Amino acid sequence: MLTKQIIRFLSMLTIFLLSCMVVPSASAKPTPLETQLLKYAGKSYAGAQDPSYLNYDSILREVMVKRIQKQFGISLDPKIYSGSDLLEIEALFRCKRSDEPFDIFLKMFPKHP
User: Fold this and answer.
1) Contact assessment for residue 86 and residue 68, using Cβ atoms and an 8 Å cutoff
2) What pTM was computed for the model?
3) What would the 3-class secondary structure string for the chain be?
């Protein structure tokens, strides 16, 4: 009898936790820039000078700069870093220790004027 109650409780707890994880992600609406970025999902490019790639990189830079500003309070210039550099910078900022300054990570990336 007790084991049935424990199993029932654990199953209800599992259902509750799963619903808590799914609901916030389903209710999030992408911003207009993120919607523009999704147009480029799955595409391949001829090279770094491909006009489609340049448009993609420009939108990615804007999205990443806004996301880094929102999450970490750091203002970055989208013209200085490439889109892929900004993705790496965000990942490093997420993994940094609280006592580490942000400047250490920014010095690792070349600036593209």
Assistant:
1) yes
2) 0.67
3) CHHHHHHHHHHHHHHHHHHHHHHHHHHCCCCHHHHHHHCCCCCCCCCCCCHHHHHHHHHHHHHHHHHHHHHHCCCCCCCCCCHHHHHHHHHHHHHCCCCCCCHHHHCCCCCCC
Position of tokens 């910078």?
A: 89
Q: What is the pLDDT along the chain (113 residues), one digit of tens a residue?
A: 667 777 777 777 677 665 655 544 445 677 787 888 888 888 888 888 889 999 999 999 999 999 999 999 999 999 999 898 999 999 998 888 888 888 888 888 877 65
